[in-house]
Amino acid sequence: MAEAITWGEARPNRQPATVPRTGATSEPAGVRWLLIGTAAAFLAVFLFLPLAVVFSTALEKGAFAYFKTFADPDTLSAIRLTLLAAGISVPLNVAFGIAAAWVIGKFEFFGKSLLITLIDLPFSVSPVVAGLVFVLLFGLQGLFGPWLIAHGVRIIFAIPGIVLVTIFVTFPFVARELLPTIQAQGNDEEEAALTLGANGWKTFWRVTLPNVKWALLYGVILCNARAMGEFGAVSVVSGHIRGLTDTMPLHIEFLYNDYQFVPAFAVASLLALLALVTLVAKSIVEWRTQS
Amino acid sequence: MALALRQRSILPGFGLTLGFSVLYLSLIVLIPLSVTFWKASTLGWGSFWHIVTAARAIASYEVTFGCSLVAAVVNLFFGVLTAWVLVRYTFPLKRLFDSLVDLPFALPTAVAGIALTSIYAPNGWLGRPLLALGVHAAYTRLGIVIALTFIGLPFVVRTVQPVLEDLDSELEEAAASLGAGRWQTFGRVLLPTILPAALTGFALAFARAVGEYGSVIFIAGNMPMRTEITPLLIVTKLEQYDYAGATAIAVAMLVVSFAMLLAINLLQKWSGSRLGREELEVLPIG
Amino acid sequence: MKAVLKLGFLAALAVITVGLGTLAGARAAGPSTILNVSFDPTRELYNDYNAAFAKYWKAKSGQSVSVQQSNAGSGKQARAVIDGLQADVVTLALAYDIDAIAKTAKLLPDNWQSRLPDNSTPYTSTIVFLVHKGNPKKIHDWNDLVKPGTSVIMPNPKTSGGARWNFLAAWAYALKRPGGNDASAHDFVSRLYKNVPVLDSGARGATTTFVERGIGDVLVGWESDALLAVRDLGPDKFQIVVPSISILAEPPVAVVDKVVDAKGTRAVAEAYVRYLYSPQGQDIIARHFFRPRLPAVAKKYASTFANVKLVTVDQVFGGWQKAQATFFADGAVFDQIYQPGQ
């Protein structure tokens, strides 16, 4: 158990966030407000400001210019492609995440630490390298590329390549979210269910899943956000064909480099809105969990 | 092999889930990544070593790892502080601040890069006042640190937060009743408890920062030997049609990343065994 | 009970296989679709040209054609084509990049450049300076750029084709000065790059740095981009300075033989590049601030393009292969400039 790492973890079944404290275990008001002020200033500079830049530039020329962006067929096609890539990669990584969290969380076996480390690996691999490996695999000068291209199968510079790198960069998210929660649950409830005659699938569905559903949802949320926002890796394998293989982040770069700042940030604001919706969804998750 | 080595359990699905996990892991991660080793091996050891130890490559490692380290330290300090404030105090807009912490995960890195550059450029909201103080933010290593701090921000906060929430106030009360001052309690009681989680967050923020590309290239200035990050060096080599050279640098980064992650996991294991079973309960891993 | 669980995961596996298989099966579109893979500053040009060509081709052959467009840095685009991006036509920043496609991937013959008129460059451009309105730093020629305290914005020649033209133009200026030789040119260009605070990866990035971020006293780059920036971003904010001598930038075009033969698009692809030389094509080119080849069209747009003494890569540097090896290869002149102790 001890080798697990936790980050961005949803916090199900925890006590209310703020516990009333007695004088002995709290700070004087001055210190308290100093700490709050410092933290708030840090978050304001690093989080509020970038968000404000995105929205203020997007709305610089008014709401009409903002919404006009989304009438452009290339923009719409970029949005569609991004939704498609996320729509394929997220469910696949959910399936993997559940399987991996189950096997790591419920069983002790040789090489577990290594398996966890390997699952983490895509997370620290540079997006540029992530794109490069698929070029080395499926490019015309790569391992399988010549054969595939000769048979008319396109992986890179087409949608499959974009989907593949998206799966790669979002690979660890769901597994990483589920793992600590599944471990924390222990095996007792499942063992009880099995002893009472439930089958394996039913046990998973009725006992395990309800216990980890919020962690799972949070994993999906983060995985989806990252899938939609990935830039570096997708840029390597996209080919940048307008209206065909441009995803939203690539289209933002294109518009930006075309001096079309309002449309660029309008599309960016859509992704930022997605982030905000994600965060609201997460808050609801936590609220539901606590109540 | 694995079957023989696992502990007995009546839970089903071990073979299936392990098989699927390993298969999927191999298809998506291991086989693709192993291609880099195959490509780099075409170079031969001599030229591989020559490429990864070239002066420009070494300078880029310094920039990448140095700035990542500084950013991770900044995140360690402010992350613990933020987690503390969010868990222990009530103040206006607290929920909003809490939600916003995840923003760097969701915002595309290129957008983050453009937004940060426009904030810290000499004519930007913060760049102008900073310049008046004589501080050049954008297009320097400071700019790189700012971008890497942004993308690594959620990690420490989100690892420390649950630990603080689960912390029993009895410990602190006991310390206080034994006459410890607030600082003493923090240093002797609280800090050791949150340290493993904080270090995990620190290491993850560091690992994430090392590979970062999209947000950094906009703000870095990209000067060879000074503000050129390693991922950019890989891209530069690719643009020169130097696949083998690019792959060599990529392999060097991969090895370091893997070693770092393994070290994190071992650190976690070590701190777990050091703390013992009792205190493990308060760790986020439960 | 195990069977159900197993079935679930087998189903998931099947979905993966079928899903990826279906996507992988998505093949390149029919013969009436061609893909033009181009470099950054030609976005607007080819947007217009593609529409005009489709109309022309429909009238001429009765066939509908849709031209897909891809723009990014020239080197990146060449690499994409080498790695299998199915470009029927490449229109890149410099001959070296198409040479790379011919040499590395053998998708077109080595003599590709002799197949079309004017060395396969239907339009040219040059390198000029963009300065703030009123030219506060009094920048008039290349030697003003190396003065201490002058901040110059140029992209990285390693990743930007346009930046290589910049580099060679500066070198040519230093070489043509009285008493100029390779050593003095090396010194001049080193001093020039000492004044560069930001090396963007592409020409458009450099323009954004200069225009939006307010960095630098002068932007060195494509004439077409400078004219476009003045028109779109404010004639009241920026003006163009033409140096005493510059380089004739010749962005070449080529049909990618292996791709068009596989797709059966040779006729339309060849017509596509040929039409660039027609009066109509040349007019669209000139409207988008690239210098046309046809004298009649050049005359019509004479007021757009400043008169400047232009040298070519072939004259001064003995062609792109040689220039690349001397200046931009690993460890060559550009890398030496950034070596410590220089």
SS content category of chain C: alpha/beta
How far apart the termini of chain C lie comes to 73 Å
Helical stretch tally of chain C: 17
Number of helices of chain A: 13
How many individual β-strands of chain A? 0
Regions of chain C with pLDDT < 50 over 5+ consecutive residues? 1-30
Shape of chain C: globular
Q: Which sequence of SSEs, written as H and E, runs from N to C of chain A? A: HHHHHHHHHHHHH
Q: Tell me the fraction of residues in β-strands of chain A, as a range.
A: under 5%
Q: What's the gyration radius of chain A in Å?
A: 23 Å
Radius of gyration of chain C from the CA trace?
Answer: 23 Å
What report would you give on this structure?
The complex is a heterotrimer of chains A (291), B (286) and C (342). By secondary structure, chain A is mostly helical. Chain A has helices at residues 29-58, 62-68, 73-106, 112-124, 127-138, 145-150, 159-169, 172-185, 188-195, 200-229, 232-238, 248-257, 261-290. The longest helix of chain A has 34 residues, at 73-106. Chain B is mainly α and 286 residues long. Chain B has a single domain (58-274), classed as Orthogonal Bundle (MetI-like fold), CATH 1.10.3720. The model of chain B is unreliable at 276-286 (pLDDT under 50). With 342 residues, chain C is α/β, with parallel strands linked by helices. In chain C, α9 (203-211) runs parallel beside α10 (223-233). Chain C starts with a helix and ends in a 5-residue tail after the last helix. Classes of the chains: A mainly alpha (291), B mainly alpha (286), C alpha/beta (342). Chains in contact: A-B, A-C, B-C.
